[in-house]
Amino acid sequence: MKLGLSAHGVTIWRGDRCLARGLSFELGEGEVLQLVGPNGSGKTSLMRVLAGIGRLDEGEVRWGGIPIRACLDYHATLAYLGHSNALKNHLTTRENIYFYHSITANSSEITADEILSRLELKPVADRPCGLLSMGQRRRAALARLLIGRARLWILDEPLSSLDAEGVAQVAALLMEHVRAGGLAVIATHQVLQLDGVPVRRLELGGN
Amino acid sequence: MRALAALVRRDLRLCFRRPGEVATPVLFFVMVAVLFPLGLSPQPELLAVVAPGVLWVAALLAGLIGQESLFKSDYEDGSLEQLLLGPAALELVVLTRIFTHWLTTGLPLVILSPFLGLMLDYPVQAFGTLVLSLMLGTLILSLLGAVGAALTVGLRQSGMLLPILVLPLAVPVLIFGAQGAAQAARGEDAAAALYLLGALLVLGVTLVPFAVAGALRISLES
């Protein structure tokens, strides 16, 4: 079966609120799914479920037709960028990137220097991440997408705190990823400008 | 393995950048041990009797400092999610994390203990048993503390909850450890106590990673 992500009757409860009820979708190679919805509508919860971190109350998420709980290398095919940047404030940008390079299963051949210059982090490479601006930290977190060869990107508000140039860089990264046959699930309030790449939208919070 | 080695390097580097976190338990350990002769009376015979208990209780309390933060910073800044998604099993990540934490908090206490023993008139020929018992004991306490730290990782104010959870579990360790150190001081054979500590350590290394990883997964679920 074609590699792809699919949700089948996904229901998510958090406390006494139902964030998703019987949600189903299919996402194939080279496709982008944008999650939209007001704050608190469950975008983050759904993404954590898709990443296999969050709890699923009913239904199933499948990767290539296999339930993700049974799919042993699912985590290795996935890059997850959460709300928080997962950077250590006391380590420099370069050290943070090295660390993620070492803990990524099938890391690409790209060197830390190439990642740093690609994301324009060269000037702050040897500065502790705690001293970076929010936008620079977000860029450093985005470095994780370049480190691995993940097929599926799950990005939670990747554009937050980024300047116009940063947004354009993310769009360029996304297009490159999708053209190579990658999949992406993105939660963002901004309009995604991806030339020639169809973006599907999924509304949450409207029942 | 590469991921686990990177984790050890990262944690040691972080400790090196924040030396205060390593120094606090050590200073606390020294201070508690120094306060006892001041509070009791500085007679060498009395101090030699209480020395094993004092050193063990001081090490136990000092070990609790910083236990709370074992998984908290990784949980709060999102690193724990990335470690969960990484190639190494969470159980092994947890065990590595506990061991690195012990290297920076437990091991300094073990190294310092002979000096404090000297101050408390603990017999020099029993130093080997004291150090060995504290080495095993602080490792077990690091493991027990990790269970408490994992259970309270999502709580805002877990400062007092952790000692309340962990200290009752530490009672057998304290009894065997202090007794072994006291037996050695009296010139008796302390092998039984050390073997029991060793058995507790093996039990902890075997079971704790699963409990901790389970608790962390549940904390990350919501």
Q: What does this molecule look like?
A:
The complex is a heterodimer of chains A (207) and B (222). Chain A is of the alpha/beta class and 207 residues long. Chain A is built from 5 helices and 9 strands; from the N terminus they run βββαβββαααβαββ. In chain A, the strands form 2 sheets. In chain A, strands 6-7-8-3-9 form a 5-stranded parallel beta sheet, sandwiched between helices. In chain A, strand 7, helix 5 and strand 8 (183-187) form a beta-alpha-beta unit. Chain A is globular. Chain B is mostly helical. Helices cover 83% and strands 0% of the residues of chain B. Chain B is built from 9 helices and no strands. Chain B has helices spanning 2-17, 19-39, 44-64, 69-76, 79-85, 90-119, 127-151, 161-185, 191-221. In chain B, helix 3 (44-64) runs parallel beside helix 7. The longest helix of chain B is centred in the C-terminal third of the chain and has 31 residues, at 191-221. The two termini of chain B are 29 Å apart. Chains A and B meet through helix 2 of A and helix 1 and helix 5 of B.
Mean pLDDT rating of chain B: 92
User: Would you list the SSEs of chain B in sequence order as H and E?
Assistant: HHHHHHHHH
Largest interface (CB within 8 Å) is between: A-B, 30 and 27 residues
| Oligomeric state of this protein | heterodimer
Number of strands of chain A: 9
Strand content of chain B: under 5%
Largest sheet of chain A: 5 strands, parallel
Shape, per Cα inertia axes of chain A: globular
Mean pLDDT, all residues of chain A: 89
Strands of chain B, total number:
0
Give the terminus-to-terminus CA distance of chain A: 31 Å
Low-pLDDT segments, ≥5 res of chain A:
none
The percent of residues in helical segments of chain A reads 25-40%
- What proportion strand of chain A? 25-35%
Radius of gyration of chain B, Cα only, in angstroms?
A: 18 Å
Helical residue percent band of chain B = over 70%
